[in-house]
Amino acid sequence: MGQIEEKSRKRRKKENIQQAVLAAIGIAGILAVTMIAPNIFQAVPGLMGRKRYKLAFQARTASSRLAIKGYVRFILKNGKKWIEITDAGRRALLLEHEKARLDVIQGKRWDKRYRLVMFDIPQKRKNTRDSVRRLLRECGFLRLQDSVWVFPYDCEELIVLIKSDMRLGKDLLYVIVDSIENDGWIKKHFGLG
Questions:
Q1: CATH number of 108-190
Q2: Cβ pair 115, 106 in contact under 8 A
Q3: Would you place residue 83 in the very low, low, confident or very high pLDDT band (cuts 50, 70, 90)?
Q4: In the chain, what are the domain boundaries?
Q5: Inter-CA distances, 150 with 107, 117, 167, 175, Å
Q6: Over residues 35-41, mean pLDDT
Q7: Taking the CB of residue 15, how many other CB atoms lie within 10 A of it?
C-alpha cells in the first residue's frame, strides 16, 4: 500500500472513530466521560478486536478533537466530568446523516431532473470554498465547472445544512433543471438510463 493510501486510510479511521463518539453523544445528549469507551465502538465495525485500553485512548482523543471542532463540550456535574453535544455537533450529525441518505438513494429511480449547486464564495473565504468543494465531491456530486456541481437526485436538505453550517446564504444556490445540454457524459457518470 502506498504512503498516500495509508495516510488516507488512517484519516478515514480517525474520522470514523470521531463519528462514532459524536453519534453516541448525540443519541444520549450527555454522557459521562468514563462511559465513552469502549461501548461506542460497537458502532464501528472492525474495531472491537482491539485491546480495551487502546479503544479508551482513541475515544478520549476523538472526544478532545470533537471539542476542538466545537461539536462537544466538557462539563463538570456532581464532581464528574461529562461530555455533551453542541448545536454545531448536532448539525454535523445531520450532515453525516444526509450524506448517508444520498449514498442510499443513488441508483434508485431517477426523476429526470438535475440538481445544480452553484456558488460564488469570495476569496477571503477560500477555506470555506475548498470545504464546499470537498464536501460535494464526498457526497457524489459531479463538477461541471469550478463552482457548478450537479447531482441527479433530491439533495435539498443537504444543501440547506451546508448553507446553514458554513453561513453561505446567497453565496450558494440550489437549482433544479429539467435538462442540461449534451448531458450524455453526466448520465454515464451517474449510471442513469
A1: 3.30.70.240
A2: no
A3: confident
A4: 3-85, 108-190
A5: 15, 6, 21, 9
A6: 49
A7: 13
